C-alpha cells in the first residue's frame, strides 16, 4: 500500500473524480455492528438516506467517515466493506463499466438528495461503488485514527484488471518493479489513491477478488486486543511494512478490513 496524502473531498469540497470518496458496509445486525465500530474507532452515528433500507453514517469529531446499512433478512450476500469512487456522471461511468466487461448490479439511482450511486463489479468479480455527490460529498476527514486511509484491490493478477480501472476512472498506473511482488499503485493527477495487489493462487477461495479498506489506528497491537474483546477476529497478525504496521481482521459478522498505523 501507499499512504494517500492530501485526499481531495475534505473541507467541504467535492472529491476529484476517480478518487475513493466513501466506504460502506451492509450487515444483518445494525445495532451490534454500530456498537462494535463505535467502540473500536470512536464513531458516532447519524441517520442517512433510507433509499436502500435502514442506513446510518458514521461520524468522527462531527465529520462523516463511513456508512453502515441494513441488509434485508432474505438477502444472504457477503458481508464486506465496499469502497466508492467519485464520479461527475455516474450514469456515464456505469455505461463504461459495462462496455469494459464489468457488471452493474445496483443503479444508477438517486440516494434522496445526497447524490447518485451505482454498485458494480469488475471483470474478475470485485465489487465497488460509484458516487456522484450532491448534498453528501463523502468522507470528510482522513489521516487520523478511525478514518479510512487506503483502498486496495486483492485479485489474482493485477494486469488483468488494471486496464479496466484505468479506463473507467482515468487512473494512471505505477507498477512496482519486482519479480516476486505484483502491485500497481493507481494515481489521479500524480497522487496515489488506491492499489491493485495480485496475489496469484494465494487469493482466498471463499472470497475471490475483493477490495480491502485500511483504517488508520493509533496503535495496531492495542487495536487488535480491543477488537478481540469486542468479538472480532484477527486474520493476519500485526506486521511491520515499509508503509507502517498493519494487521488484517474481521468484524463479528465477518466483514474483512485492515488496520494500519502509517509511517510519517
Descriptive account of the structure:
This protein folds into 2 domains: 20-133, 2,3-Dihydroxybiphenyl 1,2-Dioxygenase, domain 1 (Roll); 148-262, 2,3-Dihydroxybiphenyl 1,2-Dioxygenase, domain 1. The chain has helices spanning 30-41, 90-99, 158-169, 220-229; strands at residues 20-27, 44-47, 55-60, 63-70, 81-86, 103-110, 115-121, 127-133, 148-155, 172-175, 182-188, 191-198, 210-216, 233-241, 244-250, 256-262. The protein is an alpha+beta fold and 264 residues long. A hairpin with a 4-residue loop joins β6 and β7 (115-121). Mean pLDDT is 91; it is low at 3-9. The strands form 2 sheets. The chain has an 8-stranded mixed sheet, covered by helices on one side. The protein has an 8-stranded mixed sheet with strand order 10-11-12-9-13-16-15-14, covered by helices on one side. The longest helix is centred in the N-terminal third of the chain and has 12 residues, at 30-41. Residues 19-133, 147-262 form the VOC domain. It holds the Pfam family Glyoxalase_6. This is VOC family protein.
Amino acid at each position: 500500500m501507499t499512504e494517500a496524502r492530501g485526499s481531495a473531498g475534505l473541507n467541504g469540497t467535492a472529491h476529484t473524480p476517480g478518487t475513493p470518496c466513501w466506504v460502506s458496509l451492509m450487515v444483518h445486525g445494525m445495532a451490534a455492528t454500530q456498537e462494535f465500530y463505535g467502540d473500536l474507532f470512536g464513531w458516532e452515528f447519524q441517520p442517512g438516506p433510507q433509499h436502500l433500507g435502514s442506513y446510518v453514517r458514521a461520524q468522527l469529531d462531527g465529520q462523516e467517515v463511513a456508512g453502515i446499512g441494513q441488509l434485508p433478512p432474505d438477502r444472504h450476500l457477503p458481508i464486506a466493506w465496499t469502497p466508492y469512487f467519485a464520479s461527475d456522471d455516474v450514469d456515464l461511468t456505469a455505461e463504461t463499466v459495462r462496455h469494459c466487461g464489468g457488471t452493474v448490479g445496483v443503479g444508477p439511482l438517486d440516494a434522496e438528495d445526497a447524490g447518485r450511486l451505482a454498485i458494480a463489479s469488475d471483470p474478475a468479480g470485485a465489487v465497488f461503488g460509484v458516487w456522484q455527490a450532491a448534498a453528501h460529498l463523502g468522507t470528510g476527514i482522513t489521516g487520523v485514527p478511525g478514518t479510512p486511509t487506503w483502498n486496495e484491490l486483492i485479485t489474482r493478477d493485477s494486469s488483468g484488471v488494471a486496464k479496466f480501472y484505468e479506463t473507467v476512472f482515468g487512473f494512471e498506473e505505477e507498477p512496482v518493479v519486482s519479480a516476486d511482488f505484483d502491485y500497481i499503485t493507481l494515481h489521479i493527477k500524480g497522487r496515489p489513491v488506491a492499489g491493485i495487489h495480485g496475489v496469484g493462487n494465494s487469493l482466498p477461495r471463499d472470497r475471490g477478488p475483493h477490495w480491502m479498506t485500511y483504517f488508520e489506528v493509533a496503535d495496531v497491537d492495542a487495536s487488535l486486543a480491543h477488537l478481540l474483546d469486542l468479538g472480532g477476529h484477527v486474520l493476519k497478525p500485526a506486521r511491520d511494512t515499509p508503509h507502517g504496521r498493519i494487521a488484517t481482521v474481521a468484524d463479528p459478522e465477518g466483514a474483512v478490513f485492515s488496520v494500519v498505523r502509517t509511517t510519517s
